[in-house]
Design a protein that fits this description.
By secondary structure, the chain is mostly helical. It has helices at residues 13-29, 32-56, 71-96, 98-105, 109-113, 119-149, 152-186, 190-207, 217-228, 234-241, 248-272, and strands at residues 63-64, 67-68. The chain contains eleven helices and two strands.
């Protein structure tokens, strides 16, 4: 009596996610979105370069109450204005909502879903590729801005704040990316919904008194800014604007919760949703 050879066991969720990650990372790094990302992150580098050229002439590029603002404080302001308030949420929207939407639009989603891996692993692998690809472009941009603005004599004093800024940016990318990965997995027009959330809901909720702001990602990211920014010069002015901030630990736990819950719901949405390709 002959026996049939045993079929190989399907890969685990983690193995499937790693395989999709390896497949997606190269595609993301060489995509048009990454070119757009490099152009966007190049803006603060250009601004920092202009500031550095002005400083080299002996003229203070920025003054508050007639007092010159040092490079460390300018760097903290640029982290808040350019990166946390604009670049990070925009990248989360454009990359997160496209993790599956691009596959549906290109009609390649069926090829991914016919592989012997769980559907949720596809989303998780693409999310990990998003984290790596955006970090590889955003964080070097921040490093360039830092060393253009901060004199070498202030590096030792401000390096702890600089490291905190890098961690805050990574956490912001993770939170926004996970949230909009869920939006992309659950909704048919995710990009529009993501833009409305970032440039509509969050902007309004942050200025409305009460508890509404607690239902935004920006509230918890913003709550960590005073802990990452230098405490002198223009940073003090910015910190006076950031009122009613939760403690740093609450912000970190809230953002980690956004990542965990969004990815869990996103995996469930992908595995239960029927993706119908338009003819």
């Amino acid at each position: 009596m002959t026996t049939r050879p045993a079929l190989p066991a399907p890969p685990t969720f983690a193995t499937g996610a790693v395989r999709v990650f390896g497949l997606s990372l190269g595609e993301m790094l060489w995509s048009r979105r990454t070119v757009f990302l490099m152009l966007v992150t190049g803006v603060p580098v250009f601004v920092a370069l202009v500031f550095r050229i002005v400083q080299s002439t002996g003229v203070a590029p920025l003054r508050v109450n007639s007092a010159p603002v040092d490079g460390g404080a300018i760097f903290g302001m640029m982290i808040w204005v350019f990166f946390l308030r604009f670049i990070v949420p925009v990248l989360g929207v454009f990359y997160g909502t496209a993790l599956l939407a691009d596959e549906v639009e290109d009609r390649t989603i069926t090829y991914l879903f016919t592989r012997p891996i769980r559907r949720g692993a596809v989303l998780m692998g693409k999310y990990l590729a998003y984290l790596v690809s955006t970090s590889l472009v955003v964080l070097p941009s921040v490093v360039l801005v830092y060393f253009l603005l901060v004199p070498l004599g202030q590096v030792a004093r401000t390096f702890t704040a600089f490291a905190a800024d890098l961690g805050l940016l990574a956490l912001g990318l993770a939170a926004y990316g996970a949230l909009f990965a869920l939006v992309g997995a659950a909704l048919k027009r995710p990009l529009v919904s993501g833009l409305v959330f970032v440039f509509g809901w969050e902007q309004i909720a942050l200025i409305v008194p009460g508890y509404v702001k607690r239902f935004t990602v920006a509230h918890y990211v913003q709550g960590l800014v005073p802990h990452a920014m230098p405490s002198d010069g223009v940073a003090a002015v910015l910190q006076s604007v950031l009122r009613d901030n939760p403690p740093a630990l609450v912000c970190i736990l809230a953002l980690a919760g956004v990542v965990a819950v969004s990815l869990w719901l996103g995996v469930r949405a992908v595995e239960s949703r029927e993706y119908v390709l338009d003819q």
